[in-house]
Predict the structure.
Amino acid sequence: MIDQEIVAQKRAAQLAKRHRAESRFKWFGRLSIGFGLLCVLFLFTDIISKGIGAFTQTYINIEIPFDEEKLGLTPQSTEAEIKAASFGSFFKKTLREQNPEVTGRKDKRSLYALFTSDAPLILRDMVLADPSIIGTTQTVSMIADDDFDTYYKHSYGRDLPEDKVIGRINDFQVSMLNKFVDAGVVEKRFNTIFFSNADSREPELAGIKGAIMGSILTLFVTLILSFPIAVATAIYLEEFAPKNKFTDFIEVNINNLAAVPSVIFGLLGLAVFINFFGMPRSVPLVGGFVLTLMTLPTIIISSRAAIKAVPPSIRDAALGMGASKVQTVLHHVLPLAMPGMLTGTIIGMAQALGETAPLLMIGMVAFIVDTPASITDSATVLPVQIFLWSDSPERAFVEKTSAAIMVLLGFLIFMNSMAVWLRKRLERRW
Amino acid sequence: MNTAINNTMSEIAKETYQTVGKPLLDSPKMSIKNTNVFYGAKQAIFDVNLDVGHNQVISMIGPSGCGKSTFLRCLNRMNDTIDICRVDGQLMLDDLNIYDKKVDVVELRARVGMVFQKPNPFPKSIYENVAYGARIHGLTDNKVELDELVEKSLQRCGLWKEVKDRLDEPATGLSGGQQQRLCIARAIAVNPEVILMDEPCSALDPIATATVEELIHELSENFTICIVTHSMQQAARVSQRTAYFHLGKLIEVNDTSTVFTNPEHKLTEEYITGRIG
């Protein structure tokens, strides 16, 4: 016989130990969640603080007298004549006349460099759009050069020590900037160029529209191919395939494919689609093929899990009614498994959206200044654009890089919330 | 090779037991002869011979794992869904050998409907549940006929008054007893000849059970019903004939009253008096 009191003491000691273990476990959990949240917070503050600047752009408002004589044009000039006119020297001449105190060759060049190198083209396009402005004086909001822009946004008027000043700008340019600011012609505006232009060598003209379109086209191809193929595969393997060594072998291989590094899919795409089938390089079509190969295993695995989760009683009910196998699957299993399948698909798509490595292999890393309009136009995608910009020497590309990351993260968050919403929406209880 | 083994096993089975009572009938609706069922190498049903009469309720009782559900699922080939399951023997529905290669299970299951242990309505509306069978078998030509069929089926199950104002609501929102009656309405909507019920009341409370039992009684006027049950009282209440299974063997078949008042076989007697099972 054990003494009741001793037993009670032992139990109390054990109980205290158990409680300590439980609270320790709880705190471990809280700590790891806290650490995770801290990392996310750090990531977001870092990216947002670096990238927020890219959403504004400095403009300098200047009066441009579209002088008939200087341009050698009249309001009646034809398109060809306007295109042939030298807007470059006209713009420089106008600047010199408006700032007569600038004399030296070097200073003059510094003055021109305050404006985007596309300034003559912008003026020409204005005239092309409306030739009647010839002979009048117009106020033009001219895009500032990236160095000027960076300096004005981040260092101007802050009295920073030399090494903290960002923006490559000389003393003469600072004095010019002061003059412009005093005249009240410098203004910061929301940067629409960033969203309406494709890539450019000039940071002030570079935008992500081309990359976004490239991503959309590539993902479109991926979705169109991977969703039906994956769903059909999952349904066949789960509902129709006999359970034998061969299907086991297929299953193991699908699971393995999900773990294959994505760059290998890129090499496969290069070898098969481009070298063997002779498809063009750098196009969303091939990019979509490659990403399809990459996302298929993910979607197949989640679709199979969704099909497995459909209670067998529903299949029994349908089969017992005399529904054929196909009817059972199409009428009952598929609708119930659809939320899970869609979630898997969207997660696979999000993965594909963020993928860079396989696309480098098939040439989607090229510098492309045109926005792609179809799946056979040369294109690049958002993550590759980020990669390209992060590699550029210009200071202004740093904030463009972070801004592009923000846009990419925005798309990812949007897609993942879509997945959650769809699941909530389509989920049915049984 | 396999057949040889099976034959030997059947021989052994034959030697070891003989069903007592009255397993055979004149002009039966279903006639099961020398039927063996295997799960892989394991034999679940041993040489069963049994007739099911026209518009009769036959109940199958026996301890858990005795093979009564397996046997029931042979009758509309629901065992086909289990890869390792194999059935041999002659199972006739009228003149149709249901395990014949030429038989279409879709057609067979339209003639032999099934109600399961757990109420399993489709996660669709009440209306869609009942209309589903008619839709897939093309029984009605237009919406009006379909509406009529749904109403008639629900009325026969005594569910119409309870659900007529919410036909568009999900069937999963009904109570357990209502769901099971809905499953029965769904089964009878395709107008089968035989209805198989696999412990239809085991998930229901006593009041819902009483309602379903009453329904089974009414349905037996038009349908042949095979019901598997754990409850001997239920078997006594609803069925005209009772079959007692033990470890895959059909021990005794007779009129329900005879089985419960005057069992011939010792095992049957021990089971109904509560000594085994």
User: Anything to note?
Assistant: The domain at 2-272 of chain B is CATH 3.40.50.300 (Rossmann fold). Confidence is low (pLDDT under 50) at residues 8-14 of chain B. Chain B touches chain A at residues 76, 78, 81, 83, 105-110, 113-116, 118, 120-123, 132-133, 136-137, 170, 172, 183, 186-187, 190 (CB under 8 Å).
